[in-house]
Write the structure tokens for this entry.
Amino acid sequence: MTFAIILFALTYVALLFFSNYRAYIALASAAIFVISGILPLGEVLGAVDWNVIMMIAGTMGIVSLFIESKMPALLADLIIEKMPNVKWAIVALALFAGIISAFVDNVATVLMVAPVAITISKKLKISPVNSIIAIAISSNLQGAATLVGDTTSILLGGHAGMNFLDFFVYKGKPGLFWVVQAGALVSMFVLVYLFRKDKHSLKALERTAVTDYFPTVLLLGTVILLILASLMPKAGIAPFVVNHINGLICVGLLAVGLLYDLLRNKNLRVLTSTLMEIDYFTLLLLAGLFIVIAGITKAGVVDEISKLFVRVSGNNVFLIYTLIVWVSVILSAFIDNIPFVATFIPLIQEMGQIGHMNVTPLWWALSLGACLGGNGTIIGASANVIVSGIAAREGHPMTFLGYMRIAFPLMLVSIVISTVYLLIFFV
């Protein structure tokens, strides 16, 4: 266990200081976990969340087609027309991303919206970093609002027996959706304050002509199918399909888009150029991180943390709730929230059985802490890793402290507001 803790700490320190080599660092660390015997070779493939990997890869490809169609450029033109300056353009993009992220995974959301911010920054010849950080923050926040907004929400909804509507009204009380909106409302005021100096005026330009609307239809189809997938009955469906439904939807729609593009252009070059736009470096980074987290879990590190948590909290619901929120916030700022949430779910279930308590606020606490805590650092959520890669590819690499300067205050505000709201209604 000591070796696993040291290796895990060294891995994340290296990720922080050598951002250009993150994928190689994560894969090397994963290999050490396997070679050392901490994580058996037979469990490596199972450690990687292929649903997430397929979803990201598929969405990246669809977004590439979306960008090629000139739709992001048109959206950028529309925002430039309506917004008086850069500050309000950033706020508008963050709100737009939040609306989408409530119904689509936050990774997919940033892949959809970030190109709009990139296009605006290119037209104005300014850095896109601040705007895409704001997009990622808003996406992570709103990912906790509905059952389909984030992978962790899907996990929690399944184990807690909640459906899509329970996130809006749960047993006659306002559900998690309204909790998140309370935090988001205050966060918007913080965002306006943080970008108060970005007063560069926006000049309306000639609207870009969209060359093809089919990629836009694919994106809308992604939203609709992901929502329907969360509501469909699981009985009688193969476990592989149930566990990978989001990824299969995204990869399937990408295949449709590629086939359409191939038939339309009758040129294989278009097909290969779209596939080359997928950020394989980021996919390898995420795969490596999944294996690293599985390694420390196998070593018993996460289990020991859970035992300590139980000893400290006892059966006091208020104390348990508070601890889950802030432990989730702190840990999710540095480790992927999917394995973290999967580890804490049995703990909450056990607390309900042993303490005979209402665990509903604990489900909400875990969801909020994991989703909102991911905003704390540049490696705290998959969406953050994605936007970091996007910025780097555009020649504007993000720094760890530069990200925290914007994200950390918003994370604290949203967590405090959401915590107070839940305490009033559920604890």
